[in-house]
Specification:
This protein is of the alpha+beta class. Helices cover about 25% and strands about 35% of the residues. It contains 8 helices and 32 strands. The strands form 10 sheets. Strands 10, 12, 14, 15, 16 and 17 form a 6-stranded antiparallel beta sheet that branches. Strands 22, 24, 25, 26 and 27 form a 5-stranded antiparallel beta sheet that branches. Strands 1-3-5-4 form a 4-stranded antiparallel beta sheet. Helix 4 packs antiparallel against helix 5. The model is unreliable at about 1-30, about 30-40 and about 415-425 (pLDDT under 50).
Amino acid sequence: MVKLAEQFPGIPARAHPCWNQLWFCVAVAMALIGAGAKSAAAVSFSASLDRDTVLVGETVSLTLKCEGGALKAIPPLPQVPGLQFAQSVSSAMNSTLGPDGRMTSVHSYTLSFVALQPGEKVIPPITAEIEGQKHASQPLRLKVLQSDPSAPPASLATNLAFLWVVLPKTQIYVGEIIVAELRLYLRSEVGNIANTQIPSLSGEGFNIGERVSGQQYRRQLGDASFTVVPLLFTLSPVKSGLLRLDPLQGSVTVLTGQRDFWGNYRQRGQVALATPAQTIQALPLPTQDVPPGFNGAVGNFSLNVTAGPTNVATGDPITVRIQISGRGALGALALPEQTAWHDFKTYPPTSEVQSSDPMGLQGVKTFEQIVVPQSSDIQELPPVSFAFFDPDAKAYRTVTQPAIKLRVRAGSGTPAPIVAAGKPAAPDSPPPPQQDIVPIKQRAGTLAQIGTPLMQQPWFLALQGVPVLAWLAALVWRKRSDALASNPRLRRRRQVEQAVREGLNELRKLAAANDSDQFFAVMFRLLQEQLGERLDCAASSITEAVIDEKLRPRGLADTTATTLHELFQTCNLARYAPIKTTQELTALVAKLEGALRELQRMKA
């Protein structure tokens, strides 16, 4: 054990028999707090594709996403045969309101490339410099096909709109995750859609994730051109056998024809949407050649292990960092028990998942665990192994990291406590007098008047009601918390109301300071947050078009709609001709406050 005097000079290391144990607890706590602070302040960088399967000649978008910082420069892109990258880059910055009420800024950089040759393409990790540090993304896989094997029949080319279910395969293993695609085909004559009623996938024996909207693209079907709107779901069977996905019934309003003076389409029609039931064969995991330590992980993973410090004394903590990267159910991955660590005292690990795709299937799960060597004879941290089932290879695989060399010194032992022996009495001293039996007291002594019993005092009776009132207050608070937890719309509404109040105060300060650029950035963000909450959609997707497409059908007053149009147009014009006078900016604050108040009164 490292002496405390070596870490903090001037403080004696053996001031107390339990000093070494106290220092060990402090070291472990500091290591855990430091790891948590490092994770909270870390900058994340990821790369993702808008889809993982395309046809030859189609354009694919590659998005580089930075959270907690911005790119110093666009990193050089790897050369992949059969992929031709374009020179243009578009960037965007989105601010979202998190569950804790804090605003999070994410910088996105989108590049496009064209797939020229069929085959399995692998885009190597991309290294970027953010805030003076280099970060690398996970490799990306893209399947380029000559033709679409899951294309709908050409007989559907006469429909204005229809649904089509696409499954990457119909035989999957229990625990394996696939991405099911529900495609909404819209013929080129359709200018826009409204009142979309598309239910989620459902079926007994499946774990089905939340719906994620994919990037739109165009496909040719027969002689007609269609815009495809993909709706993505994660799908994982929980039992083996022949499983069935239920048929879907929905509808959509299609807007076609010429536009009128106000920009509205002249024709609209209701189209029924339906899909047949789908059958999937769920295969059980093989029972032969199951490797030791297998705990149910299904996917394709790699392993990386680091540890530090490696020069310690017995009893000192070592932080082991285990990273499992790949594709699969990252959130369900568990660290297998390492039976070779019997010479170490181990503590429960902490974990963190960083996904690089919208579905959360590709990424890294990092475990951090504190281990303490118990003997100076230890020379290495034993190898770490992780076993999983690879559904592509249809076999179990085990990845192992080699042992990590350690130098473990003998720690200073805790001194044995000294027991002071009793001093024998001198032989010539007289023995102490023995205590005789105490006689019975003959007199009762002075009598005192007894006060009012507590049970008859009002303050004592009132004090008994305090626990009941505390219990009732806790019950009301718990009911309210449960109501908020089960009602995400209400929780989001309250968060947006708070953000609007704070944003209006910030706008008044910016108006007084004549900070025009920041003023219009905050005003545009408040419009997006309030409209997104009313329409129950992502704030980053809100544009001026939703005023006529979604708010007017819900009964929005014409004056409020006109005010919103003017506010959006003022934000757009401010990029080229910013308003710099305090009076004009202050007038816009009052106008925005009135519009937001009318939106809050509108029924969501």
